[in-house]
């Protein structure tokens, strides 16, 4: 079984915020694959089981709030005896433009506290992750305020595209392996030449 974990914050007040694109990606996969999520108080998460990319999967939304996401992930991984290599984590990244998607099979958290906690709880950086760009923080904003803000109307289309592509990237990791997904989604976008 593979765990597909979307990071975010529970509660209506966080719905649609930049920090919750991981949750939104899980919602999209649930819709695409007809997976029903249910609250599991023992794991402090919402979970749903299905088959994606030909593999048995468990979709997970930690209900621990972003900064303690790893606690729920570790509890589930320990219970099902899953190694970190069977976990894919999807989360927001302020260093990428809105809607950009990047796939990595290991590395640090780049300041993202949910991923930082996940690395700490699992005791390894060898965790496949799919990052969804939410845009760079304006200089006058605090980072915590920015990631809890909602997308602007002009960003909405790119955000929806990013969430969709992140779901496609997860599916590709499951079907073809992380290297194929990295080759597909980590291409540099050429800058437009000035006219």
Report what the structure shows.
- The protein is an alpha/beta fold.
- Helices cover 35% and strands 21% of the residues.
- It contains 6 helices and 7 strands; from the N terminus they run E-H-E-E-E-H-E-E-H-E-H-H-H.
- Strands 2-3-4-1-5-7-6 form a 7-stranded mixed β-sheet, sandwiched between helices.
- Helix 1 packs across helix 5, helix 2 (69-79) packs parallel to helix 3 (113-122) and helix 5 runs antiparallel to helix 6 (178-185).
- The chain is globular.
- The N and C termini lie far apart (51 Å).
- The model has no long low-confidence stretch (mean pLDDT 95).
Helices, strands, pairings?
Blueprint: E1 2-6, H1 21-33, E2 38-40, E3 45-52, E4 55-62, H2 69-79, E5 87-93, E6 101-104, H3 113-122, E7 128-133, H4 143-147, H5 156-176, H6 178-185
Parallel strand pairs: 1-4, 1-5, 5-7
Antiparallel strand pairs: 2-3, 3-4, 6-7
Helix pairs in contact: 1-5, 2-3, 5-6
Which consecutive residue ranges, at least 5 long each, have pLDDT under 50? none
Q: Could you tell me the mean pLDDT?
A: 95
Percentage of helical residues?
Answer: 25-40%
- Rg, rounded, reads 16 Å
Question: Would you kindly provide a brief summary of this structure?
Answer:
This protein has six helices and seven strands. A seven-stranded mixed sheet has the order 2-3-4-1-5-7-6, sandwiched between helices. The chain has helices at residues 21-33, 69-79, 113-122, 143-147, 156-176, 178-185, and strands at residues 2-6, 38-40, 45-52, 55-62, 87-93, 101-104, 128-133.
């Amino acid at each position: 079984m593979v765990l597909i974990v979307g990071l975010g914050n529970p509660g209506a007040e966080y719905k649609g915020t930049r920090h919750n694109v991981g949750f939104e990606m899980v919602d999209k996969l649930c819709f695409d694959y007809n997976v029903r999520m249910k609250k599991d108080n023992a794991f402090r998460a919402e979970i749903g089981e299905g088959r994606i990319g030909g593999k048995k999967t468990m979709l997970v939304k930690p209900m621990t709030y972003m900064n303690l996401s790893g606690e729920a992930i570790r509890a589930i991984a320990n219970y099902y005896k899953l190694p970190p290599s069977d976990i894919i984590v999807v989360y927001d990244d302020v260093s990428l433009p809105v809607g950009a998607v990047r796939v990595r099979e290991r590395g640090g958290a780049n300041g993202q506290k949910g991923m930082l906690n996940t690395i700490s709880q699992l005791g390894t950086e060898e965790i496949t992750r799919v990052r969804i760009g939410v845009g760079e923080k304006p200089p006058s904003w605090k980072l915590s305020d920015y990631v809890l803000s909602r997308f602007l109307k002009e960003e909405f289309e790119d955000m929806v595209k990013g969430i969709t592509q992140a779901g496609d990237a997860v599916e590709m990791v499951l079907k073809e392996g992380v290297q194929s997904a990295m080759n597909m989604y980590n291409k540099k976008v050429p800058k437009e030449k000035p006219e």
